[in-house]
Each structure stands twice: as C-alpha cells, then as structure tokens.
Design brief:
275 residues, mainly alpha, 0% strand, transport
C-alpha cells in the first residue's frame, strides 16, 4: 500500500508541475499580455501592475516572454519526441529482425550516433541549416532517435525470444501481425517511460541551442535565449534569469516525475522489484 501511495504521489506531483506549465503554454497560444516584440515597457523596469515580472533590457514584458517560451518548450519537446519515436522505433524494429551483417551494421550505426552527445549532434545539424525552431526540433529528434532505436532493438529481441512468438510463427501468423499484436503491446510501457524522459532532455537541448543562438529566432521567445540575454543584467534585474531558469527546472522535474510514476505503474517487473 505504501509503495502504491508513493507511486501515485510521484505521478500526481509530476502531472501538477508539468500541467501548470502546459496550461501556461496553452493560454499563451490564445492570449498574452503584450506582443512578444513590444518594447514600449521601458528597459529593465521592476515588477509592477503594468508588468507582473518587469521588463528585459529591450523593454519587453518578461511575463509575456515566459508564456511564449513555455509554448516553445512544449513544441520543441513534443516535436522532438515524435520524430525520435517515428525514426527510433522503425530503426529498432528493423535492427531486431535483421540477421548477420545487417544487424551488426544497424547496431553499430546506432552506437555511433549515441556516442555523440545529443546537444553536440543537434548543434552540427542546426549549424548546417538556418537557425529556426523547426531545425532545432528536427536536430534534437534525430539525435534522440538513436537512443530510442537501441532501446527498441533490445526490447523487441527480448520479445521475439519468447515461446509464444515461436508458437505464433508455427501457426502461420505473419510478421506484421506479430509486430502489431505481440511485439508493440509488450514494449510500449517501457517505451512510453523512455519517451517521457526524452521529452525533458529535448526541452533542455532546445534551451541550450537557443542559449547559443541556434534555436528559435526572435521575436519567438525561448527560455534559453532569455537566460542568455539576462546574464549581463543579472545583478540589477535578476528576474530575467531566475524566472525562465525556475520554469525550465520545474518542467524537467515534473516530466521526470511523470516518467518515474509511469514506470512504476506500467511496468509489472518494476512493481515487483519495488514491492
């Protein structure tokens, strides 16, 4: 009972943290206090009635920047995870079914990609194209697809070694039906947990790219670029750096708590180990 309560608490706290920021992102798509490029607020004004968190060095409303940045963070996280899932699951399943040199080649390819840090590989891809949010999402998603692909390969090979797969093949069931009916249903709990973790890593990677000037260009706000712009004025206007930093940390913690809660909820083996 205590373990069940702990799992429920972890998942609930994660959902609250991530859900509040998701709500902020949703509201920003419909309404923001000021236009993202409105510089009429005056440079580095403090928090007040007109500007809840004050303004940045260009006179833009910080709360508006935070709201817009939350939407960029979720777009980057969700977009990257979708790309990583599509590419990674495809490569992982192919590698699991491959034999001999083809299996070795695909496995080596995934290992080489994993050897490169996600942020570094994303930087190389973005640097080869224009610095846009779409390029950043594509780069992060492709970089993460190697991690997803290797995990899927391991999980699929484990499932294919089971006796019921042999029985299904003996009965004449085709491989596509085996994948759809047996393989994917057995790997999705672990895969969902991993993709939740990849979401948090994608948000951090996008913030890192934006900090380096390789993310979403102005007037699109990004928490990473807000941190970069506010570092020179941290002593006089700390809110410009603290606010996006805190939201970034809270979102990543929330997503990690959700992944931890989902792992305990969806993975029977993990439940037995922790019982």
């Amino acid at each position: 009972m205590k373990q069940s309560t702990k799992r429920s608490y972890t998942l609930s706290v994660g959902c609250v943290l991530a859900g509040l920021i998701a709500l902020l992102a949703l509201v920003s798509a419909l309404w923001v206090p000021y236009a993202p490029d409105d510089t009429s607020g005056g440079r580095l004004t403090g928090p007040g009635a007109g500007h809840l968190l004050g303004t940045d060095k260009l006179g833009r409303d910080l709360f508006t920047q935070l709201m817009t940045g939350s939407r960029v963070a979720f777009e980057a996280g969700l977009g990257s995870v979708l790309i990583a899932a599509a590419v990674g699951v495809t490569l992982g399943v192919l590698a699991a079914f491959a034999q001999g040199w083809l299996d070795d080649t695909l496995s080596a390819f995934l290992d080489i990609l994993i050897a490169f840090p996600t942020l570094l590989l994303a930087m190389l891809i973005v640097a080869a194209h224009s610095a846009t949010l779409g390029s950043a999402v594509l780069a992060i998603g492709l970089a993460q697809s190697a991690v997803v692909g290797r995990l899927v390969r391991i999980l699929v090979k484990r499932v294919l070694a089971q006796d019921y797969i042999t029985a299904a093949r003996t009965s004449g069931t085709s491989w596509p039906r085996i994948v759809a009916g047996h393989v994917l249903p057995n790997i999705w709990p672990t895969l969902v947990v991993n993709l939740a973790l990849q979401f948090g890593l994608a948000v951090l990677a996008e913030a890192g790219l934006s900090y380096l000037g390789l993310g979403a260009p102005p007037p699109n706000a990004s928490w990473g670029r807000m941190l970069q712009e506010a570092q020179a004025t941290f002593t006089t206007a700390p809110a410009g750096a603290l606010a996006p930093g805190i939201l970034l940390v809270l979102l990543v913690i929330g997503v990690n708590l959700i992944a931890d809660g989902l792992r305990d909820t969806l993975d029977p083996a993990a439940r037995r180990r922790r019982a």
